[in-house]
Amino acid sequence: MTDRIAMAWGAAIVAVGLLNIADVLPDWTTIAAILTLPLVASWRCAGTRCGTKSS
């Protein structure tokens, strides 16, 4: 996953949160957005050793 996609996903989660605060979206959308964060993080680290230093 590129940095652009990661930033776009983060912006989308913030947008969902703001729309939920404004009562535009139902509450379950924010919960669903937050629960997808580990999945997106694992896609970002796919094929690499995230969190470890490479020699």
Describe the structure.
With 55 residues, the protein is mostly helical. It has one domain. It has three helices and no strands. It is elongated. The mean pLDDT is 76.
Structural class: mainly alpha
* Strand and helix order: HHH
Largest sheet: none
Number of domains: 1
Beta content comes to under 5%
Which runs of at least 5 residues are low in confidence (pLDDT < 50)?
A: none
Q: How far from one another are the termini? A: 22 Å
Task: Name the average pLDDT.
Answer: 76
Total helical segments: 3
Query: Looking at the chains present, what oligomeric state does this protein adopt?
Result: single chain
In total, how many beta strands?
Answer: 0
- What percentage of residues falls in helices of 4 or more residues? 55-70%
Shape: elongated
